[in-house]
Write the C-alpha cells for this entry.
Amino acid sequence: MSVINQLTATKHTRGDVAPGQTARPHATFQGAKREFKKDGKPILAARNVFKSYRKGKLEVPVLRGVDFSIRPGEFTAVIGQSGSGKSTLLHLLGTLDAPDKGEIHFEGSRIDNLPAGQRDTLRNQQIGMIFQFYHLLPELSTLENVLTPLMIANGVFSYWRNKRQFVDRAKKLIDLVGLSHRLTHKPRELSGGEMQRAAIARALIAEPKLLLADEPTGNLDQKTGCEILDILKKLNREQNLTIVMVTHDQSIAAQADSIVSLVGGVVDKG
Amino acid sequence: MYKLLLSWRYLRTRYIALASIVSVTLGVGTLIVVNSVMAGFAHEMHVRLKGILSDIVFESHSLDGFTRPDWHAKEIRKLVGDDLVSLTTAVHVPAIVHIKARGQLLPRQVMLIGVDEATYGDVSQFREYLLHEENRKQLSFQLREDGYGDKDHPLPPSGWQHRRAWTVIEKEYLKQQEEMYRESQKLEGKQPLPLKSGPEIPESPFARSKPDAEKTEEFDKSKEQYTGAILGIALGCIKQRDPEGKVKDYYLCRPGDDVTITFASAGEKPRALNQHFTVVDFYESKMSEYDSGFVFVPLKALQEARVMTDAVTTIQLKLKPGADLNAVRDKLRVRFPAEEYPYRIQTWRDMQGPLLSAVQMETTLLNILLFLIIAVAGFGILATFFMIVVEKTKDIGILKALGAPSRGVMSIFLSYGFSLGLVGSGAGMIGGLLFVVYINDIAKVVEWITGHEVFDPTVYYFSRIPTIIEPMTIVGVVFGAVLIAVMASVLPALRAARLHPVQALRYE
C-alpha cells in the first residue's frame, strides 16, 4: 500500500491524536520504548565512520569511528553537544557528504561510495530530509516547494503528464501537515512552524523510507516545536516511517524510541 | 521541470540581472539599426552604381573602339543564349562640355557617351533617371515643348518654351549691346562698324561649289535645335544652401539651352572637335560621380563627328535577373580572348569592385565593433551571475539535498542566462526595428533638438535615409547575442554545479 493511501486513511484522525492520549495502546511515546524485532535487518547503519574537517592547516576530527544501526520503523534521536558532529553524521547518512573512513549502509547495501548520480536519486527518492532552517526555496510557493522533489525526479514532459496526480498528492500531504490554507504563499509569508510543516511535506512527497531531521525544532518555540514533533511521531507511528532526528535537546530526544548519544565523535554506549 | 520553473522565477524576481542585459539590448538594437541602414545604403549604391552600367560590359582599350559591332552582337547572342535580355553598343570618349552661364563659358570635364536611342534604355536603368516623363518611356534626343521635372525634382521652365523666350531675351540683349557700342563709338567720334555676334568663320574654299541655299539660311535658334545631349544633373545645376539654410538648386543651364562639347576625333592623330549640342534633358541617378561626369548624345551623331564609321568602344549586355554574371563573363572571355580582341570584358561588379568592397568592409567592421559591445555586456552578465550564484548558494544546497544532480543545477543557470539573453535581445530587436522604421522621423526630431541636419541631402542626394531590414541578419544578431549571454553564464553555472551541498547548506 502506498504512503498516500495510508495518509488519506489517517487524514481524518489527525486532529484527535494528541501526545499521550490515543486509542492505540502501543503508541504512548512518553512511556516505555517500543519493542522491535531483534532479528530485523537494520535499514540504516554506520560502520566505524570517520570524518574530519580542515580548517586551514589544522585538521579537526569530528567523527572518530561512529558505529550504530537503525531498524525499520524506528524513531531514533541522535543527541550530542554543539560541535559533537551530529549534523555531520546526518549529512553522511543522507549521502550529502562522504566519510573519510568507514561505511554507510542503507537497506543492506553500501551507499557512501555510490557514484554521484545514484546518490542523487537515492536522496531524491529514498531519503527525505528536513533542516533546522527549513530550507525552502524562496521563489516558490508552498505547493511548488512541496512538489520540488517530483520536479527533480521527472522531466518536463513526464511531469506535465502526471501533474494533476502530483498536485493531488502534494495537496493531501500539505493537508496532513495542516497547511492547506497556505498553498500559494511564499516562504517569507509563512511562520517558522508553517515553514517546517511545508518542509516535512516536501520531504515526504517522494514517499521515502527514511526521514532525516536536522534539529527540526531547533529554531521554533516550545509549542510549535511540540507540534512539529507530534507530526513526526505520528508519521513514525502510523506509517512506520523510519526517522533519524538530530537534536541537542534532551527532552525532545526523550520522546524518541531510541537515543544515540554522540560524545567526542563516538557513540556513547553508556 | 524545476530548472525551467526556477529560471523563470529568477527572471521575474531579479531585476538587477535585467539591468545587466540592458547593454545586450542596446547592442542588439544598434546592430540592427546599423545593419539596416548600411544595407539600405549598400542597396542604394548598388542600384545607383549599376544605374547606368549594364550587367556585362565590353570596354575597348582605345578610343577608336572596335569595328563590326553587329557581328559581335550576333556572336554574343549565340553564346549567351536565353540569358540575354538586351544588348546595346555605345561610344565613350573623354570630353569637355562648355556651359554658357551668366555670360561665361564654364568648362566641365566629362565622359561623352554616344548611345543608341532604341536599345540603350533597355540595357540599364538610365532611362528611369531622366527628368522628362516621355523620355522615361522612350529615350529621345529631340527637345520637348515642356513638362520637364517632376515632383521630386522640379525644374524651372524648360524645353522649347524656355528656348523661344530665351532667344528673345538674347536678341534684345544683343541689340542693347549694339546700341551701347554705337553710342560709345559716336562719343569717340568714330564711324561705328557693324557688330557681329560671334567669331568670323573663314569661308570654305568649297563653299562656292555647293548650292548656297542651305548655307545662307541662318540657324534659327527659336525653331531649331542642335543635336540633342543629355547632361548629368550635377553638370547643369549646383546644390547649395540659401541664406535661410534650405537646400536649393541653382541652374547653370536647362533643357533648351545650347552647350559646346569638345572631344577628340578618332584616328592616329586625334584632333579636338568642337560641336554645339542642345540640352534636351537631365538625368539624375543620385550618384554624384555619375551625375557630374557623363553626357549622353546620339550614337550615330558621335560616330559621324569622330569619323569612326561603325566602330564602337563598348558593348553592354543586360542579362536575365538571377543569371550568373561571372559565368557568362567567363564564357565570353573564352570566346573573345584578351590576346586577340582589343577590349576587356567585365561585370559591373568588377568595375565598381573597390567601392562595393569598401562598403562591405565598413559593414563588417561595424558588426565586429558592435559585437564587441555585446561581448562586454556578456562580462556584465558574468559578474551579475556570479553574484546571483553566491546569493543562491543555500538554494543550490537545498536542491542538491533534494537530489538534484549537478547537471540540473547547472542548467538552471544556463537556461536563466539563455532567457535573459532572449529577453535582452528581444527587447533590442523590437527597439531596433522600431528605430529603423521611424528613422527619418527620429532624424527630424534630432534635427529639431540640435539644430543640425543629421542627414545632409547636399552630400548624399538622398532625401530620406535608406534602410533595408534583412530577416537573416536580425536572426543572426539575436542568435549571436543569446549565444554570448549563454556563454557568459557558463562559468557561474559551473561554479553553482560544483558547490558542495553541505557547505552550501551551512552558508548563512
DSSP finds 20 helices and eleven strands in chain B.
